[in-house]
Write a structure and sequence with these properties.
about 0% strand; disordered N terminus; globular; about 675 residues; mainly alpha; 3-stranded antiparallel sheet; MetI-like fold; 29 helices
Length: about 675
């Protein structure tokens, strides 16, 4: 029996046998979260109607404040300093640049006085095919060879190989740093406690925000691209590898310890081999993150395919952006499929009884001979050194541009109608509320909503982040970016819930949709801007639609997993009670999967925020524009730094609110 006391009393009395148990019950337990949030929004709207346009802290696009000037001076002092930190970063940068340049002269760019690299395209293709044959099997070797050839036929051989070089160097450094950290985390709870929040913090940052701070330390060039990519990409390999090491059977570890193995022997002979497939999954995720960042790092003069994409996006040439974008997509699919195949190869061989080992060694030996011949030929014969020029890429670009122009002209009414519907129905009203309220009213409302959703810790984090946004003097632009993020996330969650419920309730749908969603998740964010630009032109709506396409796959998969994990017994009981499918979805599965739904909102928000910032390249404005302007105009570097920090604060705020909300939902 449970007795509920008056609202101002702090406890309810329950009985268990003869002894009473006191449980806490407050007014907050009796007020649904949605009604509390709705009440806050209603009060906000009422106050906004009287105070609209007052004290919004809006500043012009070229205006800088004392804070921005201070950041500008700080960046100048940092660049001109002679301290050991700058000396160290320059030394590291020079070493990385020298190694990448050596690799470029070896396989991608002319090695003076040669007009071609030391190893030409034929040798590079042969080496890539042979390595893949050894690690992943002949099917994937054929895939890799075809993908490498496609880079050349599209007209982006050198840029593609440069992208692979920078990605490979960054991933290698991430593995060298990340695996020891993962081993430490896998064997030490205190290390996990210390390192996990750092990884959380790094993964909260949108990719674009890494560029400007590291540009100040390393300057423009390949070294900055490598270090940006390294920092952005190494958290996945640490997390996933640590999980793999942590899940090695304690019984196995105890048995090896009783046999007298040292700690080092246990790590090298037991944990790492047994966690091998998980380690390669971590490397796969790090490789995908690195490829995404390498293309973005073209904005700081990083070599590779990102440069042609940026140049085409800036002049709204969809066709010219499509061809290097297609090369990026091909590369992402190639790397994803190959690393996944490597992780699964051992298990496949075990199922096949180990395969014909002698035949495999003969094939590899023959392949090595063929590869050596190809390398020799590509060094001494010009036809095998520089990839033959083709018009395939130019022809494809022209056809895509023609198709884009036709789509834009033919469906102009539909796309503009949809854009106006969303703009006038969602974007503009929410922007008025967020950006045209007095800054203090928006801040108080956001803090109150954070407290309603995530509790006092979420509210405290929001207070600190809001104070930071106010102090960086970009409050109004921050609210505009937040508005685009929230509107896009609302659409992402609508797709996530509809698609996730559909997938979660049907294995047939899951088998069809999951490979498509997996493929979409391998694509770097730049790629999504190209079709959005073709449909909607250079506007903020382009960034929003690209963000929806970029974030929806992860949200759909998380919701689907949450729906599928709802207890079948509960669903059967609801069915037996006479509930129809719609009632089961609405009253059983969605409420019981609300923790997963909020987690999907968390991931969707962070993905969307990353894309809306990148959308500064195609007219999204606000903080994305400020960051881009910080690269283009030296006098706006301080404002660009403030914008980068503002994006980070928004990311942390949204991440903590949704994480806390998910924890509360999961615990209730």
């Amino acid at each position: 029996m449970t007795t509920t006391l008056e609202p101002d009393q702090r406890s309810a009395v329950a009985t268990k046998g003869a002894e009473p148990i006191v449980t806490t019950r407050t007014w907050r337990d009796r007020v649904p979260t949605w009604s509390l949030v709705l009440g806050i929004v209603v009060v906000w709207i009422v106050l906004w109607s009287f105070l609209e346009g007052q004290n919004t802290l809006a500043i012009g696009g070229q205006t800088t404040t004392e804070v921005h000037d201070w950041l500008f001076e700080l960046s100048n002092d940092l660049q001109q300093a002679d301290g050991w930190i700058i000396s160290l970063t320059h030394a590291l940068g020079d070493a990385v640049s020298a190694f990448v340049e050596w690799m470029q002269h070896l396989i991608s760019s002319p090695a003076f006085p040669r007009p071609v690299p030391q190893i030409g395209w034929l040798g590079v293709v042969a080496i890539a095919g042979w390595i893949t044959l050894a690690l992943a099997g002949w099917r994937h070797a054929i895939l890799v060879v075809a993908c490498f050839l496609s880079f050349g036929f599209l007209g982006f051989w050198e840029d593609s190989i440069d992208t692979l070089i920078v990605t490979g160097v960054a991933v290698a450094m991430a593995i060298l740093i990340g695996i020891p950290l993962a081993i430490w985390m896998g064997n030490s709870r205190p290390a996990t406690t210390v390192i996990t929040p750092i990884l959380d913090f790094l993964q909260t940052f949108p990719a674009f925000t890494y560029l400007l701070p590291l540009f100040l330390l390393f300057g423009l060039g390949v070294d900055t691209a490598v270090f940006c990519t390294l920092i952005y990409a190494f958290p996945p390999v640490v997390r996933i590898a640590a999980h793999g090491i942590r899940t090695v059977s304690p019984t196995t570890m105890e048995a090896t310890r009783s046999l007298g193995q040292s700690r080092w022997q246990q790590i090298t002979k037991v944990q790492l081999p047994m966690a091998r497939s998980t380690l390669i999954v971590g490397i796969n995720q790090t490789t995908m993150a690195a490829l995404a960042m390498v293309t973005i790092a073209a904005y700081i003069d990083g070599p590779g395919l990102g440069g042609p994409v940026i140049e085409a996006l800036q002049v709204v040439q969809v066709g010219n952006a499509f061809v290097p974008g297609l090369a990026i997509v091909i590369m992402a699919i190639m790397l994803d499929r190959t690393t996944t195949a490597i992780s699964e190869r051992k298990e496949r061989l075990q199922r096949a009884g180990g395969g014909n080992r002698r035949l495999r060694m003969i094939v590899l030996a023959a392949g090595a001979v063929v590869t050596g011949v190809c390398v020799y030929v590509s060094h001494y014969y010009s036809w095998a050194a520089g990839f033959p020029e083709t018009e395939i890429g130019n022809t494809l670009a022209d056809k895509v541009q023609t198709f884009s122009d036709w789509v834009s002209t033919t469906f102009d009414g539909v796309t503009n109608g949809f854009k106006d519907l969303v703009s006038y129905g969602f974007l503009n009203p929410m922007q008025d509320l967020l950006a045209n309220s007095p800054w203090w009213l928006s801040a108080l409302a956001i803090i109150a909503i954070a407290g309603a959703l995530g509790g006092r810790w979420a509210a405290l984090t929001t207070v600190l982040c809001a104070a930071g946004l106010w102090g960086l003097d970009l409050w109004n632009n921050s609210m505009i970016t937040l508005n685009m993020t929230l509107v896009a996330t609302a659409f992402v969650m609508a797709l996530g819930i509809v698609g996730g419920v559909w997938m979660g309730r049907s294995m047939v749908v899951d088998r069809f949709l999951r490979p498509v969603l997996d493929a979409l998740q391998t694509l770097p964010p730049f790629v999504y801007l190209i079709p959005a630009l073709a449909l909607f032109g250079s506007t903020r709506f382009t960034a929003i639609m690209a963000a929806i396409a970029y974030a929806a796959p992860v949200a759909i998969k998380i919701v689907a997993d949450g729906i599928r994990n709802v207890s079948p017994t509960t669903v059967e009981a609801a069915t037996a009670a006479g509930s129809n499918n719609w009632q089961i979805i609405r009253k059983v599965q969605i409420p019981m999967a609300r923790g997963s739904i909020i987690l999907a909102a968390n991931q969707g928000l962070l993905y969307v925020l990353s894309m809306t910032v990148i959308g500064g390249l195609v007219g999204a404005g606000a903080l994305g524009y400020d960051i881009v302007a910080g690269f283009r105009q030296s006098e706006l570097v301080g404002r660009g730094l403030a914008a980068s920090l503002s994006v980070v604060l928004i990311g942390i705020m949204l991440d903590r609110i949704t994480r806390r909300a998910a924890m509360r939902a999961g615990g209730s």
